[in-house]
Amino acid sequence: YGQGVQGVPGQSGGTYEHTQGYASDTWTIDHNLGYNPNVTIVDSAGTIVEGSYEYVNVNQIIATFTSGFSGKAYLS
Predict the structure, then answer these.
(1) pTM
(2) pLDDT in tens, 16-49
């Protein structure tokens, strides 16, 4: 899985940045924010990418895309 910088746990308004360092069409994002955040995904060129998001629980999201790529997920 990729790496991320921890946001403020359990508080609305916290943020988390996930780095997906290798190309994949499925990203597992463990954010530990304690709520279901908004998600913005960008590829390595900085272009916003649309996907489908499964909120597994209040601390994990699985993002699925039509093709694999690396990039970042910004959660807030």
Answers:
(1) 0.82
(2) 999 999 999 999 999 999 999 999 999 999 999 9
The four Cα atoms 65, 46, 36, 14 give a dihedral, to 10 degrees, of 160
Q: Say if residue 66's pLDDT is above 60.
A: yes
Q: What is the DSSP string of the chain?
A: --EEE---TT-TT--EEEEEEEEEEEEEEE---SS---EEEEETTS-B---EEEEEETTEEEEEEEEEEEEEEEE-
| C-alpha neighbours within 13 Å on the C-beta side of residue 7 | 23
What lies within 8 Å, CB to CB, of 72 at 6+ separation is 17, 18, 19, 20, 41, 42
